[in-house]
Amino acid sequence: MVATALRSRRTDGQLPALLLFLPPALLLFTIFVVMPVGEAAWYSLFNWNGFGRPTNWIGLRNYFSVFETRAFGLALRNNGLIIVVSLLVQLPLALTLAIMLAEKFRGSVFLRMLFFMPYVLAEIATGLIFSFVYDGDYGLLAAIYRAFGAEAPHLLASADTSMAAVLVVVVWKYFGFHMMLFIAALQGMDRNLIEAARIDGATRVQQLRFVVIPLLYPTIRLSVFFAVVGSLQLFDLVMPLTRGGPADSSQTMVSFLYTHGVMRMRVGYGSAIGVILFVICVTVAFTYKRWFMRDE
Amino acid sequence: MNRLTRLMFAAAAVALSAGAAAAQTTVKWLHIEVNPQQVKIWEEVARAFEAKNPGVKVEMQFLENEAYKAKAPTLLQSKDRPHIIYSWAGGVLQSQVEAGVIEDITEPMKGYVDTLTPAAVDAFKVNGRNYGIPIAMSQVGFMYNKELMAKAGVDPSKIKTWDDFLGAVKTIKAAGITPIIAGGADKWPLHFYWTMLAVRVGGKAGIEQAMKGENGGFESDVYVKSGELYKQLVDLQPFQNGFLGAKNPQAVGAFGDGKGAMILAISSFYHTQKALAADKVGLTDDKVGWFEFPQVPGGKGDANDTLGGITGWLVTKGSPKEAVEFLKFFVSKDVQSRLAAGNYIIPVSKGAEEGIVSPFMKNIAANLAKSKYHQNFYDQALGPNVGRVINDASAEIAGGSMTPKQAAKAVNDAWKQGN
């Protein structure tokens, strides 16, 4: 049986390579990915503060209490908001700019660089910079309001506006990255197709609508994928801006895990959040890959 | 001698001296102090100790406050843990002791603890054993800007009750001055209002009963009433614009800049407001005043009860005995007097408070000496989880997203769940 399997077509001739190269990779993956995930799943069944060994077994109670926490709902909503804004604002913006800047003209390289710059900036630095920009007393925003003779709002200090303020920073920071993806795809595109469309009498808009954008679909799918995964990971931008507050209004899943799990030394509870986040990530990644990125 | 031999000799010499260094005892001392002047004095204390005890090296390590709290559980359970660590006593100390990572220092400290303030020593006792040495105490109360109070026509010495205080806030606001500055993004500056009111309303019995779960625990009348009184203040909108987004250092700096009339402060803000002010000068001694947190008529608390911090050092399990020796040296009257003379701390070593020069800090020391019930900060006393919940709930009351009843319930739920 085993011999047949080994002699099967799949491993034919590749067996030595498999035996040589698979174990190290498998070992690393097990030690650094599978085991920590398994450990977190195990801890999530205990009421444990991180000291000593976990002994207080409470079954699935951590999970129930996560679902009951208002901050969890808010975090989930905010992650959803980030995805929606990424799709409705960031992606069209990046695409438009990419189409404009993919052409070669004086200053196009400079503009590309300029728009890409925020992406290069560290998240923490970006957060700090914007916390100054948003400051209602001394910030840039306050100066603009004052120029019009109005009192500036403290956007980060109100539960109604804090998430919107974070979203603006998210778009500002990441649109350049998506723009670069699109520019790369546009430059790799077969010019003959557009040429052909033009000769056939297609207007500029029609060329975009029927030739360029369909050819960009794979890149758009990739960009959406990055936006979704990025949303689920968003943390280091939120911490210097709002730390998830006020009143948990700008929590993301990861900042929720950090503020309610790590900072409170509730290792079991935090692990439960981690496991939930893991399940969400895996589901999203696999579903997306299966439904939208089948061809790649 | 050719070059190679010389090189080998050099290598051997290095190896030998390294061996000698390893034979020394190193005491690893982890602190979270950010004030460079205070660290400098500590540094000198360490060097003085080394000079007196040849063969002992004191190595200072630093971690930022929040980073330290987050890292502590893993750090303490590693083999490479520091020997002396910083502590706020309370619930965190309790769980560390239960985990068996802290050394019982009752025996080596025998007799020695008598030279220290009893209330502070007791804070570091778990099950009647000494697990740490207190180094400093602080008090929570109102710091005010004398010029702005005078401008608004408010006499701080007349603020005795909570209603007086609310009246003063209205007067100051009517004068077009921001009554109170608060670092609401950090949340704990706001929890002082709720918990200090609880000290006034419920007294020592209030929190003791709550911790035992009597009278509805933290949902008892004490906490609901305190929350409601706090809400009365919040409803006057006494804080600076955007206070929920301001971190404590920003708020203290703004107070030092003269942006508001009052701040509910830890006594150590006396220094920090100077360091954090835009001009690095802040409010000088003639411009800054202090009044006690107002009384609540009908409250069970004694008028002299205080809320504040008690900080100290712990010795971790398996540390060399030199670690304890160093602590004894650290809390000796000489060293404490030096720190007190810099006005950095209210010392816990008896008699060392004589070293305090500034009238401001002298007053705090006198208050703490008078106090029969000194409540440790709630967010420390109740442990990391319940502490954070209290802080969150205090900020939510201030932001209007929770009623005092809901806030009390949130705290009680967390307390029942445990840390």
TrEMBL record, chain A:
The chain crosses the membrane at residues 17-38, 80-102, 114-134, 163-189, 210-235, 267-288. It is a multi-pass membrane protein. Residues 76-288 form the ABC transmembrane type-1 domain. The keyword Mitochondrion does not apply. Pfam families: BPD_transp_1. It is found in: Cell membrane. Keywords: Cell membrane, Membrane, Transmembrane, Transmembrane helix, Transport. It comes from the Bacteria. The keyword Aminoacyl-tRNA synthetase does not apply. Belongs to the binding-protein-dependent transport system permease family. This is Sugar ABC transporter permease.
Automatic annotation (TrEMBL), chain B:
Keywords: Periplasm, Signal, Transport. InterPro entries: Bact_solute-bd_prot1, SBP, SBP_1_CS. It is found in: Periplasm. It holds the Pfam family SBP_bac_1. PROSITE patterns: SBP_BACTERIAL_1. Residues 1-22 form the signal peptide. It comes from the Bacteria. The keyword Transferase does not apply. Its main location: periplasm. Belongs to the bacterial solute-binding protein 1 family. This is Extracellular solute-binding protein. It comes from Alsobacter ponti.
